[in-house]
Write a structure and sequence with these properties.
Order of helices and strands: HHEEHHEEHEHHH
Distance between the termini: 30 Å
Structural class: mainly alpha
Strand order of the largest sheet: 2-1-4
Oligomer: single chain
Number of strands: 5
Shape: globular
Number of helices: 8
Largest sheet: 3 strands, antiparallel
Helix content: 40-55%
Length: 224
């Protein structure tokens, strides 16, 4: 198990480096969002972090401002803007979370940061995940396109998420922590880069309809 200061140093170095290198892209995306769907540019939401403490998570906004709906939504949701679909496909909406990593709200690799209102409803046997700092990436985040399809056409996405998907995510996170090491962190960073690039040819997260037998009809990705 790597020392906490080692992981924190890696968090800071990687977050600062990426924020500097990607600042032109982030500025362009901010201007694009403002031009195509107005203000605000950022989406803010209370998430549950280490020790079950809440923090404000930042993402680029991908939904029309002021519209209400389920806390867990999908890429085929009518609230999602055209620009938002593109951002979600390549996970560009998550770039502002580098600021959360720099602040110490999040780490590079860990459990998915859960919306606070969902975390409060977590089954007791899976609340152990809140003992850990949530990650920008991790085993659950690298299955987001596959897991998102599970929410398709569910009458109550939140109930399904708590009953079916949370146990799946707990199992994946338990496996992560059983092999926790600096090497594991670096491996997940490399896998994340490949996962993002693979969106160019992987249609499963595009939010488009599919005519393949047995398909749910749409492919969705989560906002929450």
């Amino acid at each position: 198990m790597p020392l906490p200061w080692t992981l924190r140093a890696l968090d800071v170095v990687v977050a600062v480096t990426l924020l500097v290198l990607l600042s032109p892209l982030m500025l362009f995306l901010a201007v694009l969002i403002r031009a195509t769907s107005g203000s605000p540019v950022l989406f803010r939401q209370q998430r549950t972090g280490e020790g079950a403490r809440e923090f404000t998570l930042y993402k680029f906004r991908t939904m029309r401002h002021g519209m209400t709906g389920p806390g867990l939504t999908s890429g085929c949701d009518p609230r999602v803007t055209g620009t938002g679909r593109l951002l979600r496909r390549f996970h560009l909406d998550e770039l502002p979370q580098l600021a959360n990593v720099l602040r110490g709200d999040m780490t590079l690799v860990g459990p998915r940061p859960e919306p606070a209102h969902v975390a409060r409803r977590f089954p007791p046997e899976h609340r152990w995940m809140f003992r850990h700092r949530p990650g920008l990436t991790g085993p659950c985040q690298l299955l987001s396109r596959e897991h998102a399809a599970l929410l398709n056409d569910k009458p109550d996405p939140e109930e399904y998420y708590l009953a079916v998907m949370v146990p799946l995510r707990a199992e994946l996170n338990a496996e992560l922590f059983s092999h926790a090491s600096l090497t594991t962190v670096l491996r997940y960073i490399a896998r994340t880069l490949w996962y993002v690039l693979s969106a160019m040819w992987d249609r499963s997260g595009s939010g488009t309809r599919s005519d393949r037998p047995g398909d749910a009809g749409t492919r969705c990705t989560e906002e929450g």
